[in-house]
Structures are given as C-alpha cells and as structure tokens.
Amino acid sequence: QVQLVESGGGLVQPGGSLRLSCAASGGVFIGRMGWHRQPPGKQRELVADISQGGWTNYVESVKGRFTISRDNAKKAVYLQMNSLKPEDTAVYYCKAFDSMSNAYWGQGTQVTVSS
C-alpha cells in the first residue's frame, strides 16, 4: 500500500513563490509522479508530471513559472512555483503510479494566491 503525504501549501501574494513536497511511503516501486490541481468550482487538471528518468511535462499555463523535480531515493516529488497568479489558487494533489500502473493520490494541499 502506498501513501502520499504532501506539504508546502499556504497563502502567498501574487508574484510570490511556494514549494510543494510529496513523499511516498511503502516499499513499492514508484514510477511516474505528478501534481494536479482543482480550482474552486472547476475540474481537477494535470499541472506537471515527471517520469522516474526525469522526463517532465507541464500544462501550458505554468510553463516557465513552475518546475517539477523528484528524488527517487526518497520517493519524493517537488513542485517549485514561482510568479504565482491568483488563477493558480487551487487544492494541489500529488499523484504517483506504481509498477503495475496503479494510481495513488495525496490528500491535497491548499494554495491560495491573493493580496
């Protein structure tokens, strides 16, 4: 069984930065990891993901502002968010896949961008 624990959300002013962290527990192999977000009243969307080998993928709206990275030894994934905008306000969820392509989700962490 895999559990994902997220941290790093909070309230930040427009133009500010936050770093989200997510660590997977359990002895299973962790493949692709990523971050999704769900703005108020909207559907959940992929923000960025990263393969075990480091290949990354970003939604267009965060390119150049967000950076995803991972530490395979720690089974952790990070999301560095710079130049935050009010439209980045959402609950951010960590997602990970094991070797059997089973998907696991974190509990979510709130990011609020407001002055």
Gist of the model:
The protein is 0% helix and 55% strand. It is mostly beta strands. Strands 2, 4, 5, 6, 9, 10 and 11 form a 7-stranded mixed beta sheet that branches.
Model description:
- There is one protein chain.
- With 115 residues, this protein is mainly beta.
- It is 0% helix and 55% strand.
- It has strands spanning 3-7, 10-12, 18-25, 30-38, 45-50, 56-58, 66-71, 76-81, 90-98, 103-105, 109-113.
- The strands form 2 sheets. Strands 2, 4, 5, 6, 9, 10 and 11 form a 7-stranded mixed β-sheet that branches. A 4-stranded antiparallel β-sheet has the order 1-3-8-7, with no helix packed on it.
- It is globular, with a radius of gyration of 13 Å.
- The model has no long low-confidence stretch (mean pLDDT 95).
Summary keywords:
115 residues; mainly beta; seven-stranded mixed β-sheet; four-stranded antiparallel β-sheet; globular
Biggest sheet architecture: 7 strands, mixed
Structure classification: mainly beta
The low-confidence runs, each spanning 5 or more residues with pLDDT under 50, are none
Integer average pLDDT: 95
Enumerate how many helices there are, as a single number.
0
Fraction in beta strands:
over 45%
Order of helices and strands: EEEEEEEEEEE
Shape: globular
Query: What gap, in angstroms, lies between the N and C termini?
Result: 40 Å
According to DSSP, the number of beta strands is 11
Helix content: under 10%
For the CA atoms, what is the radius of gyration? Answer: 13 Å
